[in-house]
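Subject: for your reference before the review

Hello V.,

The reviewers asked for a structural picture of the protein, and I figured it would be easier to keep everything in one thread rather than splitting it across files. Below is the amino acid sequence we used in the manuscript, unchanged from the supplementary table.
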Amino acid sequence: MAVKSSAIGTRRPLTIAIDGPAGAGKSTVARQVARALEYTYIDTGAMYRALAWTVHHNGVPTDDVDAVVTVADELDVRLMPGDTDEFTTRVFVGDDEVTESIRTPAISQLTSALSTIPGVRVRMVDAQRRMGLGGGVVMEGRDIGTVVLPSADLKVFLTASPERRAKRRQAELAERGIAIPYDTLLREIVERDTRDASRDVAPMVPAADAHILDSDPYTASEVVQQIVNWHEEALARG
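And here is what came back from the structure prediction:
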């Protein structure tokens, strides 16, 4: 299904916030929406993963909150478009490319834990807000529409059933040669959902004015087209 947008370039570029639980397809959808609209894609999850990788790589005690926040203060993370795959974001910490390293199950779990630290979130949110200035941005994460960019022009909360998300995650890992049982992934997703939704700081909940989109019945292209349609409606409203 071709993704079309007839309103591109007619008015000021908008800011689009896409939130939702892990494995809902936010990254794939956000990248394709950004490409369709010729906007900049910002993967905030990759920023948190880069922090988790740095903490793990440097042997920083994960229960030492001050030490973890210091790492967040000093973190030099860069997001760049892929050289050969237009739907891939390359992630660098300093001079080290960590694009693949930050996608392991262990880093995923550590990322979820570290993201509950208030000092970490304050620093990350500040960096993300600066990235969103000026519009023309598609930013995805878990609290973009509620905390990072509460004044975003278009907010989408993308979700999917835990079962579908576990299957998607298993397939993604298998492509990288990592075999994880489906039941293990399903349990981790449910646990992470509970942790993300119940944390004291910036819990994962839909913004009051967000479009709720369950991706289970649709293809990725159909989900992208729906968001592009909402973008055109937002442009028309001015």
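For the response letter, the relevant points are probably these. The CA atoms of residues 37 and 55 lie 35 Å apart. The longest strand covers residues 154-159.

Happy to draft the paragraph if you're swamped.

O.
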